[in-house]
């Protein structure tokens, strides 16, 4: 349950002095519609954004630093605990899984962390990613709202995931690691890691949730094309997998099970480390390139968001976009509502408990204080595979408890209805995960139509759905169903949450 907001800067909302309807010559440059007078916000990321009518999304610089929100929080998040002793973990407890530099980032209180030049060089393949105004969607919705989306589908893997895969593999390679292992659901994270591994000559092995491995061959083929080995999870290669298969030989798998398998392999092999695509502080940190760029892009066109919306699985794309804006909010520079959107079938923030729980099914990971549906919870097979995770990032959970953001859940049919509207106006076919953000954006824009408010809505379009077309086929044939959340199911899985004080 979110506590009362500690945030006191509500009265400091920075609005352009001109009316939102001020008529300024409209220009389309690159991906950005310039229809507002430029204004200057002094951003506290140390970067001076050039506000110029000639700015387009390519003229801003790729950030030189990631942003760590923890540095600016008045209350620090609770520490992760050792899974056996329940004592706060020490850096050395994590060294079988992660390289030293990532362990340092995980526990860092530094406000900004330099992005290595080699990582920035790879980012240049697709960054800065475009910020696009959804003018045609606005028109369809007949809304006075101005809708912008930050599009991460331009990366080689088609989502935001390479923003963290690239530095994770780079730090591992720097410390001499030759093999990394991971889990993946629909394959977005696995393909991002396989892509990064091929650049830095590191072997990659991926445990892919069985249901996706069987139903969605294309991302598996991407991973294999980039040289990764891919196994269906649960597998017979690990003790965790064998145990699950003994109980249920046809188990469809889950992200929690696949994490157990990958963690087990890393823990048992000295030359192998584990990479995670979301949830942990260092992953959220790397994703802040999205928000840092977006702050500059919005400043360049003279816009300040009133509402920021993103989908949440483990929370990395949402944090990536919103955390730099939360920094500006804490400094009183702006005051956007920050809204996470989760699937109605896996609502960890809105229906979970805030408690210490394991990040995986077998209980091998540290205990993290987070919103959780219970580590035993196996979400229904909704199409947004990347949102089928029982927990929420501890840092997002903490920020939610502090009252700096809100959360809602939306069932999948409404999400696909929104995605079709989006595809037929903006042209891009969203991955099933960001359809949640799009549906919430449409709700907000429709509210603006009723109230007449010209709000600026900024949304995270974190990936394309070119390899998720069976989901669209299901929807277009009228076969999609809303998999409702069953209270009894969660009560049963919440019973597995360990009893830890705090
Ligand atoms: C395209 C896409 N969006 C969102 C997510 C959810 O992850 P996160 O909440 O960490 O952004 C995933 C996860 O696989 C994904 O592939």
Automatic annotation (TrEMBL):
<protein>
    <recommendedName>
        <fullName>tryptophan synthase</fullName>
        <ecNumber>4.2.1.20</ecNumber>
    </recommendedName>
</protein>
<dbReference type="InterPro" id="IPR006653">
    <property type="entry name" value="Trp_synth_b_CS"/>
</dbReference>
<feature type="region of interest" description="Disordered">
    <location>
        <begin position="1"/>
        <end position="21"/>
    </location>
</feature>
<dbReference type="InterPro" id="IPR001926">
    <property type="entry name" value="TrpB-like_PALP"/>
</dbReference>
<comment type="subunit">
    <text>Tetramer of two alpha and two beta chains.</text>
</comment>
<dbReference type="GO" id="GO:0005737">
    <property type="term" value="C:cytoplasm"/>
</dbReference>
<comment type="similarity">
    <text>Belongs to the TrpB family.</text>
</comment>
<feature type="domain" description="Tryptophan synthase beta chain-like PALP">
    <location>
        <begin position="125"/>
        <end position="463"/>
    </location>
</feature>
<comment type="pathway">
    <text>Amino-acid biosynthesis; L-tryptophan biosynthesis; L-tryptophan from chorismate: step 5/5.</text>
</comment>
<comment type="function">
    <text>The beta subunit is responsible for the synthesis of L-tryptophan from indole and L-serine.</text>
</comment>
<dbReference type="InterPro" id="IPR036052">
    <property type="entry name" value="TrpB-like_PALP_sf"/>
</dbReference>
<dbReference type="GO" id="GO:0052684">
    <property type="term" value="F:L-serine hydro-lyase (adding indole, L-tryptophan-forming) activity"/>
</dbReference>
<dbReference type="InterPro" id="IPR006654">
    <property type="entry name" value="Trp_synth_beta"/>
</dbReference>
<dbReference type="Pfam" id="PF00291">
    <property type="entry name" value="PALP"/>
</dbReference>
<dbReference type="InterPro" id="IPR023026">
    <property type="entry name" value="Trp_synth_beta/beta-like"/>
</dbReference>
<keyword id="KW-0663">Pyridoxal phosphate</keyword>
<keyword id="KW-0822">Tryptophan biosynthesis</keyword>
<dbReference type="InterPro" id="IPR006316">
    <property type="entry name" value="Trp_synth_b-like"/>
</dbReference>
<dbReference type="GO" id="GO:0004834">
    <property type="term" value="F:tryptophan synthase activity"/>
</dbReference>
<keyword id="KW-0028">Amino-acid biosynthesis</keyword>
<dbReference type="GO" id="GO:0030170">
    <property type="term" value="F:pyridoxal phosphate binding"/>
</dbReference>
<keyword id="KW-0456">Lyase</keyword>
<keyword id="KW-0057">Aromatic amino acid biosynthesis</keyword>
